[in-house]
Amino acid sequence: MKNWLKKHRRIRFTLLCLALAAGLSGCATTQYYWQALSGQVALLSRQERIERVLERTDISPALREKLLETLDLRQFAEKELRLPVDGQYRNYADVRRRFVVWNVHAAPAFSLEARTWWYPWVGRLKYRGYFREDAARRLAAEIAARGDDVYVGGVEAYSTLGWFRDPILNTFIHHDSADLAEILFHELAHQQLFISGDTDFNEAFAVSVAQEGTRRWLRARKTAADIDRYDEDLRKERAFIHVVLNARAQLNALYRSGAGSEPARLRSRKEALIEEMRQAHEALRTGWGGVSPYDAWFSKPVNNARLNTVATYQDLVPGFEKLLAACGGDLPKFYAAVKQLGIRSQAERRLALERAPKPEK
To answer: What total number of domains does the chain contain?
Structure first.
């Protein structure tokens, strides 16, 4: 069953190791890019062409089945979704851990303005990624000590935006077919379009492409029951997103109106709004028969940094969906329209998506 944690783990950890050649100074900066470089090299050293893996006799039937499925997904992405597959996902790598990288997210205790980090070529991003969990948690602890909300999330897949040939990883290969399709289509969408410094735009675009692509692949390859199950998962996901974004909007209003208020009062109201969000999820859970795919998400502490991870991926998705519908479902036309949006300023892009008209019936 789909759940937000799986999706959140798809956050891109954009490879920035080439920035070592950019002449950046400072010990901490050099150490950061060195870990990115060494981590990527270690990953690439483990990869093997999928066809060769399939020839081996020591792999499990489950892995064999999934590797064959990825080859089909790759072909579908190229031919039907018109995504730039090139040499991506032709290899398989087992990194021998649950996540390939860990991302650090941060925001002030009484603001939803995400902390950002600057990177060469890609601009400012709303996360800092590490190949080692302990390194990510050290940074998170340093930021938290300054009073910020922090969140460290494990990442199953990321895109190097064409700098390297990204392999299929053991961290996500065993997901069910729909989730696996979403992961691959999402990461390939980043190679179709990436706007420097606009994390929300990039991720929402990739989500919209991944979901549309998954629907089309399921219709072409799977049964009606599989499609119905996917649609039901999406309905639950959107109900969850509504609950989270509604709470986030209320918190944003609180922070904006609470300038000058006592920190203790702001914190108390913040905690109350987060508790109301939990209760709203409980109501959803009851309506779903007492079981929710988002129980794991709510089992952990919720703060501004964690809420921002949902908004980053989901806030602009409705606008992209309306734009795709206005393009008659024609993906190349949709990609061209999105690229035109990419020429505008970040504020203009967001406004255009928020005001995107519903297609005429």
So the answer is: 1
